[in-house]
Amino acid sequence: MAADSAILHVDMDAFFASVELRRRPELRGRPMIVAGGERGVVLSATYEARAFGVRSAMPMGRARRMCPAAVVVPPDHAAYRAASVEIMKIFRDFTPLVAPLSVDEAFLDVAGARALFGSPPRIAAAIRRRGAAEQDLTCSVGVAPSMFVAKIASTRCKPDGLAVVPPDQVLAYLHPLPTGALWGVGPRAEAVLTRLGLRTIGDIAGTPVDTLRRALGDAAGAHLHRLAWGIDERQVDPGGTDVTIGAERTFPTDVGDPAVLARELLRLSGRVAAQLRHRGRTARTISVKVRFADFRTITRSRTLRDSTDVSQTIYATSVGLVADLGLLGVHRASGGGPPPGAEDTMVRLLGVRASNLGEAGPRQLLLGERPEGWTELERVADRARARFGAAAVGPASLIGQRGSGGQRGSGGPPGAGGNGAARA
Amino acid sequence: MKFRVERDEFTEAVAWTARTLPSRPTTQLQVLSGLLLDATGPMLKVAAYDYEVAAQSTVHATVSEEGRALVNGKLLAEITRSLPAAPVDLAIDGTRLVITCGNARFALPMLPVDDYPALPAMPPVTGHIEGSAFAAAVAQVAIAAGRDDTLPVLTGVRMEIEGDTLTLAATDRYRLAVRTLKWRPAEASTDEGDAAPAAPVTVALVPARTLLDTAKSLSGSGVEVSIALGTGPSGETLAGFAGSTRQTTTRLLEGQFPPYRKLLPDSSPLIAQLEIAPLQEAVRRVALVAAKTAPVQLAFSPDHLVLEAGTGGEAQATETLPAVYDGPELAVAFNPSYLLDALGALESDIVRIGFASAEDPAVAANKPAILTGKSGAEGDAADGTGSELPDYRYLLMPIRLHG
Description:
The complex is a heterodimer of chains A (424) and B (403).
Chain A: E1 7-12, H1 15-23, E2 32-36, E3 41-45, H2 47-50, H3 60-66, E4 71-73, H4 77-94, E5 98-102, E6 105-109, H5 114-117, H6 120-135, E7 139-144, H7 147-156, E8 162-164, H8 170-174, H9 187-195, H10 201-205, H11 209-216, H12 218-228, E9 245-255, H13 258-278, E10 281-292, E11 297-308, H14 311-324, H15 329-334, E12 347-359, E13 363-364, H16 374-388
Parallel strand pairs in A: 2-4, 7-8
Antiparallel strand pairs in A: 1-6, 1-7, 2-3, 5-6, 9-12, 10-11, 10-12
Helix pairs in contact in A: 4-6, 11-12, 13-14
Chain B: E1 2-5, H1 7-18, E2 34-40, E3 43-49, E4 53-65, E5 67-72, H2 73-81, E6 88-93, E7 96-101, E8 104-109, E9 127-130, H3 131-142, E10 156-162, E11 165-171, E12 175-182, E13 184-185, E14 203-207, H4 208-217, E15 224-231, E16 237-242, E17 246-251, E18 270-275, H5 276-287, E19 296-301, E20 304-309, E21 317-322, E22 330-334, H6 336-345, E23 350-355, H7 361-366, E24 369-373, E25 392-396, E26 399-400
Antiparallel strand pairs in B: 1-4, 1-6, 2-3, 2-5, 3-4, 4-17, 6-7, 7-8, 9-13, 9-15, 10-11, 10-14, 11-12, 12-25, 15-16, 16-17, 18-23, 19-20, 19-22, 20-21, 23-24, 24-25
Helix pairs in contact in B: 1-2, 3-4, 5-6
């Protein structure tokens, strides 16, 4: 290990909003919100808008009440992707070890770049300079000996900041922070920790690992304990093993009908599977996200025995997860009866996500498996769509449904070969 | 309770039985962390039970006062292991069990023996088999059992009895190992002439780990193992295995074992034959460059096999071996450790790898290959015809190289 901190976490500041400001300079200095989706949630907001309490993922209605003066701009995902490509190019000028976490943030390992570009803090400063000069975009950079500390540091120096945590300062830096600052501590884990009287990362570090294991489960407990001591052995992997692939949709009006929910899951599963195949990856963990009318949001995940890029498998898994929430019970029992109806089961948003990704490579076949199964069918369907257009092949149950929908704007392909109606 | 036992015999009995102690007894079942000592007549029984598996070992003892005691099993095992070479005296003194051996003396607090659950009784014996043959057969099959608990039925070995034939099978869905062997079914009880015995259980799904440990522990030379399949006191299905001094009962796994017989081909249209030892060595060497589950590719051409592993820019390795092969150019990829498991389990110098098609290499490379030893070459001269199915078959699913 190097004696100094050589991991950078670069996080673009208010990325979508900043890209919009480049072509609408007249909006600079004013509260501005990028909002999308059929009903509109905040995708990004300038710091002027954030000052009023506007946050990402907030429903637009609420954001407008908080900041009536804000200018609202629809998203232009193509422009953000183009800007992202340019930013990542700058990163790669300094090191090949760039692991993008999403369009607007990435980890960089610059240990090997010292001789060429100087110390990691100098590299961080140079990246910030070039981003501002060449792309007119600001970012915040955390420099630390490990990925998760770098990420915490960049979050805490936003916006337009630079934070350097030398190796011998890691514990002093981490321990006073609230437990929620740790990667992997969401509201639920935080509640569990609070019940144990643990409020800071230092509190976690001072707790016997067995206690944490009992409270949070074996893996999570041990993991948090290691993090609390600043131990994170993950390497910056340019293959991007940490990336997940997901698709979600906010319904125009809240949905209670199990048949509609199931059909949406099929469409989302098809999109996720098509993305996986397109990027040459497979996933072992499938999760669903359900946001109810009252904004309660539940995610559930299941890890499969074998990794997959097959929409049928993703669909079957996500249907199982949603059914376990009681949302498809009626649908399953009677093939689509009346909706459960009760207010608290009306669904506002549905999402499907694939994680635990690996390279799609050689595949261990299973005994008794059909030699030409879903995998092959979906690949053939991919080729047909590439040649004849997105509508060429699709699941029968999605025929006559509207196209892709969702918040991705640019009309992706509808669900990939699912229920088997190959119309090619 | 008061008795004397031989040090080595006692140590061995305690050590073997203690292996069944639950690794983490819950607080409600603290008694299960204990080993039960039961001195009756000229015998001492040592027993452990975790509600799944019960193990019981019997040693000779000079019993001056009969009785039962329960003490912490792990501690007792450690103590017996380090006792000096001298007869061991055990006696209850108030609430403690006192162990005296040579000049060493231990006093262990006792656990409430009356709270200890009754051990499941051994079901009526179904048949007998020679211990080392049984252990070898179990070892050949258990390698193919699944290891993770998401599909519990796959963590078992299926035992099936048909007359004098015992069939063992296990699969983790990637491979399937099947072994048939002869055994001696128990004769229908003759002492109560007319009372026809209840139809014996003929199929049992035994947890693979337990079966492997049990069979190994009963494999002493010349030991005859009794196998008993039946039901326990609360109606659960049980299997019991007993040698001369050791006895294990285990709860069976529930659920439907996959219908594996239909996966086994009656014959293979295309067969490659290789010497096992050089193939094993070559696979091990070539697999050095393959990541954890990365495949090793076997490319067959007339009289040759080329092994290859490693991808693209990474490290690569190849090795060529002579093979008896007379088919089309065929490239098939396997998980090297599954392949090595099979090669290690075959009791033969030659492996026959049977493929599903002699005409279409794509079919042969995507359907299960069947690995068997070469029968008739040595040993079982009796059949000679070669028509009989080999007694050990290992069906291995290939890895598809490109998606």
